[in-house]
Amino acid sequence: MTAQALPLRAAACPGCLAVPDPETSAQAGGVVAPRITLSLPGIHCQGCISGVESALAAQPGVHSARVNLTLKRALIEAEPGTEAEPLIAALAAAGYEARELDSDLIVASGPDAAGRALMVRLAVSGFAAMNVMLLSVAVWSGAEAATRDMFHWISAAITLPAIAYAAQPFFASAWVALRAGRLNMDVPIVLAILLSLVTSVGETAMSGPHAYFDAALTLTFFLLAGRYLDHRARAAARSAARDLTALEVPRALRREEDGTETRVALADLAVGDVIRVLPGARVPVDGVVIEGASEIDRALLTGETTPMPAKAGQQLCAGELNLTGALLLRATAVGADTSLRQMTELVAMAESGRANYAPLADAAARLYAPGVHILSALAFAGWYLYSGDLRIALNIAAAVLIITCPCALGLAVPAVTTAAAGRLFRKGLLVKSATALERLAQVDTVVFDKTGTLTDGTPLPEALDSHEPETLAVAAALAGASTHPLARALAAAIAARGIAPALVSDIREHPGYGIEGTWQGKPVRLGRAEWAGAGHSGADTATWLATPAGVTAFRFQDTLREGAAELVRVLVDDGKTVVLLSGDRSEAVQQVAEQLGIDTWRAEVSPSEKAGAIESLAQAGKRVLMVGDGLNDTVALAAAHVSISPASAADAARSASDIVLLGSSLAPIAEACRISRKATARIRENFQLATLYNVVAVPLAIAGLATPLVAALAMSTSSLTVSVNALRLGPRR
Amino acid sequence: MSVLTYLIPISLTLGAVGLLGFLYTVRANQYDDPEGDSRRPLSPDWDDQPKP
User: Fold this and answer.
1) Same domain, A556 and A520
2) Do A231 and A137 belong together in one domain?
């Protein structure tokens, strides 16, 4: 990777730096070689960096691979035509979990332009603040007359352009708020900066002793620091969440009237079109099966683990997964009318309820912003009436605004959330929403989904040892030929026992029924109960093997996700109510609930019933944390007070949730609850510290004792106190 | 006090050099992976010969 050190081009203004110039972005855009970006949620040290880079470099077609540990990504430059799957498999073999990311999306968004712009503004204001501060030292230590005026003028020459450039985010935000007739935190900030600049320039012109250039710049610098921390924490989460958006190609195979098939975009489909759904593909639209037989995995939509047989005449929904055979569908609903999209609308409605949550920072700003203006105006009026001198009154008013200005308040929340989000990211949790931590700290009820959340969502065969090795060998041979999830799980489990597949010839798959073959001259079948000759299917998730010796049933069980038992125990010990809501069958849900010690559970719950259950909990005054992964959980995730979904979840579920779990273990959720409570406590402490400091400083300012030196000292001390307090989030473990 | 005529421009120039240096590092993507860059020196790869 030599493209890292880009030549520095002469830029007329630092702002141009924020905009990637066409030359470098073309270089980064991968015109020369296609780029593959992989997400690596598990990497954490230099050993992982070398491990991943050398594993990737050893793959054919890979020119270079570079790991970004901060974003937990690998960027690969490869020959045209190189696919991501073999690379992911190679990483899995080396022990690293990897997922492909949509490179176009990432390259298009480019490096974090907004973050860079903020960083450059921070640098400019920091540089200017340091220089003006040094010049001010001379004034504070007693420079007089012409010397003092010269220092003031030089300060003004540095401050005015620096503020005009660096404080733009505050000007813009305050302007937006004022135009909407609101007051936000930025209005008093901008007022303080502008008023102090005006009085300072005025004082300097009249050879006055006090100028607040350094205070205005330090204020800008500290506030930009808070803004930058805030942005960085959120940008990291946002980009990673965007990264997780799986690459599902939104295309479908349409059968034309002349019998040929064309690949078309989903948007071009119309009701009545005939669509072919290949095995292993998702059903693109709602429709009725007109030809073919297969089995359908509805786990993502309903949470059911047992595949459902599909044959002509059956209604299918968009988002379901076709397992064994090709199907021909006649579309009954496309685009926005599909059941999948209607779910999205329900989500939007559920989310509007959550918008009522007022973050702590806003609550503070609502109290603070008017208070500051009133105090400053009162100080101005009082001094004007008392002394009759407009200049003194204006100076005092500016001093009050500057002293009360929320350096500490501006840092109070972002410093804590940055520290907490960083801590959680190391634990494998991505905080997507800014207020998620505050909301998580209030949770008293936790609702879990079963399939894919508390369990892995992949079935494992039970009690294989009770079967004859010969039976297992035949089963392995048949199962190995199928892509059906049960068959694959069976084949893998038998292979793990070291049993080689038997010699079975003439293997054919009967879509929707099972696999047939010839073993020792006699037919053998693996598949559905009726087809294999078992007569009844029963309630269990199972597959049946028919050999000349008789019919054997292989029953399957969904395994618990790593850390699930531990998490439930910690939550219950914490005094939280734990509830299990699942769309799966009653027996399966009961089994998991008993294994985990969850007393309250409901099975066969529809998506809207899930959301309803959460709303009724909320109406009973409970603060609900929803943990779920399926499309059927999406509405519930959005309706809950705060929500978490694993990285393996459906896109919609991930985007509806506030926190994404990157690893496969559930255990970090308990840690998240603990950290969120600590973080909220720190935020409150920070507000108390900032208030305490104002209680001491404001009377001084109103009394006219706040010289620029006092203002500079007070501002730095309060900002430092708040930042240091934010770092006390408990020991790193 | 006439020494100030030299000292002030010199101090401002030095500060500006620092600022420009920082802008260069921003532009050269040196803040894209602070976590990884801080750990790369610990890796034993390419200790014997430079990366080709």
Assistant:
1) yes
2) yes
* Chain B positions in Cβ-Cβ contact with residue A134 (cut-off 8 Å): 11
pLDDT in tens, A234-268: 665 555 445 444 334 456 778 877 777 777 766 67
Q: Do B26 and A45 touch (CB under 8 A)?
A: no
Locate the chain A residue with the closest alpha carbon to B10.
Answer: A131
Q: Is residue A333 part of a domain?
A: yes
What's the CA gap between A592 and A450, in Å, rounded?
Answer: 8
Reduced to 3 states (helix: H, G, I; strand: E, B; else coil), residue A674 is: helix
Q: How far apart are CA A708 and CA A685, in angstroms?
A: 27
Closest chain A residue to the Cα of B9, Cα to Cα: A154
Report, as residue numbers or ranges, the catalytic residues of A: 449
- Within 8 A of A54 by CB-CB distance, chain B residues are 45
Task: Give the pLDDT confidence score for residue A104 in this predicted structure.
Answer: 54
| Contact (Cβ atoms closer than 8 angstroms) between residue A398 and residue A203 | no
Distances (CA, A) of A711 to A305, A368, A688, A691: 65, 19, 19, 16
Those of residues 60-79 in A touching chain B at CB distance below 8 A are 67-71
Mean pLDDT calculated for residue range A631-642: 81
b/e map of A45-82 (b: 16 or more CB within 10 Å)? ebebbbbbbebbeebebbebbbbbbbbbbbbbbbeeeb
Q: Identify the band that residue A4 occupies on the pLDDT scale cut at 50, 70 and 90.
A: very low
Tell me the per-residue pLDDT of A541-590, one tens digit each, with 9 for 90 and over: 677 787 777 777 787 777 788 888 888 898 888 888 898 888 777 877 88
Nearest CB to A46 within list B15, B28, B43: B43
* B chain contacts of residue A123, beta-carbon cutoff 8 Å: 19, 22-23, 26
* Residues forming beta bridges with residue A525, ordered by sequence position: A516, A546
Highest mean pLDDT among A109-113, A235-239, A388-392, A531-535: A388-392
Strands A286-291 and A327-333: antiparallel
The domain of A280 spans: 251-337
Nearest-Cα residue of chain B relative to residue A3: B28
- Per-residue pLDDT, A537: 55
A234 and A149 inside one domain: yes
Does residue B25 belong to any structural domain of this protein?
yes
Total structural domains within chain A? 5
pLDDT at residue B2 in the model:
79
Tell me the CB-side half-sphere exposure of residue A670, using CA atoms within 13 A.
18
Amino acid A237: pLDDT = 55
State if pTM tops 0.80: no
Residue A108 has pLDDT above 90, yes or no: no
Q: How far apart are CA A575 and CA A643, in angstroms?
A: 19
A27 inside 8 A of chain B by CB: no
Inter-chain contact B28–A8, Cβ cutoff 8 Å?
yes
Our CA-based measurement puts residue A5 at a distance from the nearest CA of chain B, in whole angstroms, of 5
Comparing CB atoms, the residue among B27, B43, B45 nearest residue A6 is: B27
How many beta carbons lie within 10 A of that of residue A505, not counting itself? 10
Residue A646 near residue A456 (C-beta atoms within 8 A): no
Which residue of A14, A131, A150 is in closest CB contact with B12? Answer: A131
Q: Tell me, what DSSP letter sits at residue A462?
A: S
Q: Tell me whether B45 touches chain A (CB under 8 Å).
A: yes
Higher pLDDT residue, A249 or A718? Answer: A718
Query: Which chain B residue's Cα is nearest to A47?
Result: B43
Instruction: Please tell me whether residues A305 and A402 are part of one structural domain.
Output: no
